[in-house]
Amino acid sequence: MTLVYALTIAAYVGCGLYMMLSRHAVRMILGLALLTNGAIFLIFFSGGIGATTPPVIPQGAEALAADAANALPQALVLTAIVIGFALTAFAIALALKAYRSLGTLDVREMQDAERLGAPDLPLSTPVKNHG
Amino acid sequence: MADAATLLVLWPVLIPIATAALTAALWRSPAAQRWVGMASLMLLLAASLALTYVVATEGVVAKQFGDWAAPFGITFVADPLSAAMIAISGVLAFAVGIFALSDIRPRHERNGFHPLFHGLMAGVNGAFLTGDIFNLYVWFEVMLITTLGLLVVQRGRAQIDGALKYAAMNLFGTILFLIAVALLYGATGTLNMADLARILPGMEMSPGLTASALLFLAAFGIKAGVFPLFFWLPASYHTAPIAIAALFAGLLTKVGVYAAFRVFTLLFEMEGGGLREIVAVVAALTMITGVFGAAIQWNVRRILSFHIISQIGYMLMGLAIATPVAIAGAVFYIVHHIIVKANLFLLAGAIRKAAGTDDLRKAGGLLKSHPWLAVLFLIPALSLAGLPPLSGFWAKFLVIDASLREEVWWLAAVALLVGALTLFSMSKIWMEAFWKKPVLVRATPRRVPVAFVAPIVLLGAVTLTIGLFADPFVEYARTATAVLVDPADYIAAVFPEEGPVQAAGTAYPGTANHSQGAVE
User: Fold this and answer.
1) Among the listed residues B350, B321, B338, B297, the one whose alpha carbon sits nearest the alpha carbon of residue B459
2) How far apart are CA B338 and CA B95, in angstroms?
3) What is the pLDDT along chain A (131 residues), one digit of tens a residue?
4) Which of B78, B113, B311, B495 is the most exposed place for a label (fewest CB within 10 A)?
């Protein structure tokens, strides 16, 4: 079972990394989403999957049963899902805005930030009077 | 339990969060947002200085959220290092807030500048104060989303392009951070940093822990902008409005450096596993690539962006050498650098205002038209290059002295060479913008607003103070280092009762005996 989980996580992370290497902004964002999911699975797996008893202290008892499930990874995963969702949504909005104003989703063609104040920019006024 | 001292730990985060909410509620009235924002920045400064005073007099202060005893709840800890970072970012936020009054246009305000600015401060202060590694991840994400918002408040083509590149690299970095946290949790069963500091020294370095340590290094490296991972920084910082760029330059990369110092002193050892050697080589390459990247640029903002990278190398140098002297030097370096770097960006804004351009080739003649601006520029510029008696001299002296004591000659040589090249870059700005005859002569010089000059004077005064009265600051850096090197005080503040809180009955199967409250 451990092997199945490990292979699943590896598949997620591998696909995510491959997609992130793409020059296409949308593929890159999909890669990020896959990577986030890989990380989330890893948290779940780190918490130890197996126990299915709800982590609720039975009436009259002082402490949890020995085979209770670990509740903490669920809290962590919930947080990570919410954050991942928000950032993916923002990244998609940003890509959409980039497509509308830059007219491309190919990161090779996005040169506007580079052109702003680039050192090899031809000057409109001739440079004189050094010293 | 909840006495004034422990509550002080919360104010540096609560004030900006409340302000972000309030300014967002006042969305339709930028004027009201401005007033609320300034009042909040003053409160934040006061709270930050009060916290530093308490930490300096009483030692490490910790606060458990909801009185859930560690390691079950979220902990906020202010040790001398955190307190110094909080104080210095309070000063910086105040200065940038004044600068923004004049620099930030109404259309930027309508795009949400104020809520995002205060949200960013909450994220930065939260990252400095938290004593929980997963919580640190959450604060990193708060910082990331507000940073992205601030990058695009101007909504130009270059801004959107820069933000997309920033987003790609930094989102990847936070995912690495998350994976590192997951591996660490899997190996130890706890996320509380003080608890980890107790457990990890007794553990064998398993493959999972090694992978976790390296992923932490990569994640913080991306955030800090170190050698092979810095490309997002010069691709985006110069596109933001000056006030925002100054805030980023002062704080964001330094949060990455701070996190690296926290994790690699409190949790992992620098010794063994080749970690020291990796960090030393990375530090040297960061210094060199940053300073050479700056050398070919002609745009003030781009020159300064590359210098952020080069300066990060000096801080990493302290971490690589890892003796108490070196770490104290690096702590001093971080404090000095935050002020100086942000000040230089503000000055870039003033130069742009006075010369009408960012491009040094088109600027000139400012020495004649704005002589006081030239003096104000020299203070941080020479401090960045490390000339005595300014703060940068002591900062460089401390880290280079530490590397000489450990006989790491090559690293000291690189640091000295990079210092000389930094001087070259600064004198380039000086010669081109101030000294050279202007390319285009204007009949009336452009005025630089008071809101630009006041924060520059304030930050310049701080630089001079640190430089001329370095002794108490160095002493404070040594105190901060003592807690970093020997975390006994840190652990004692988080676990006031002797020994760990062993809740034997609550042990979960599959993990260690430690668990924690919900994180959201």
Assistant:
1) B338
2) 12
3) 789 989 999 999 999 999 999 999 999 999 999 999 999 999 988 877 777 777 788 788 877 777 777 788 888 999 999 999 999 999 999 999 999 998 888 888 888 888 888 877 655 444 444 43
4) B495
**Interatomic CA distance for residues B87 and B12, integer angstroms:** 9
For residue B161, list chain A residues with Cβ-Cβ distance below 8 A.
98, 102, 110-114
Residues of B in contact with A23 (CB under 8 A): none
Asked, for residue A62, whether it belongs to a domain, the answer is no
The enclosing H or E element of B64 equals: strand B61-64
Contact at CB, B505 and A62, closer than 8 angstroms: yes
Minimum-distance CB partner of A91 among B160, B171, B185: B171
For chain B, give every domain's residue range: 4-498
- Chain B interface disruption, residue of A46, A101, A102, A129, most B CBs within 10 A: A46
For residues B175 and A36, is the Cβ–Cβ distance under 8 A? yes
Q: What angle do CA A93, A98, A103 make, to 5 degrees?
A: 135
Does A94 contact B160 at a Cβ distance shorter than 8 Å?
yes
Unique residue bearing structure tokens 């940003």 = A94
Q: Give A68 to chain B, closest Cα distance, Å.
A: 7
Answer yes or no: do A51 and B510 touch at CB < 8 A: yes
CB contact under 8 A, A125 and B161: no
For residue B262, the surrounding DSSP H or E stretch is helix B253-262
- Whole domain around residue A13: which residue ranges? 2-51+70-108
Q: How many domains is chain A partitioned into structurally?
A: 1
* Assigned token pair, B346: 């503000």
Contact call for B358 and A117, based on CB within 8 A: yes
Task: Give this complex's ipTM.
Answer: 0.89
Q: Enter the tokens of residue A104.
A: 């491309």
Say if A44 falls within a structural domain. yes
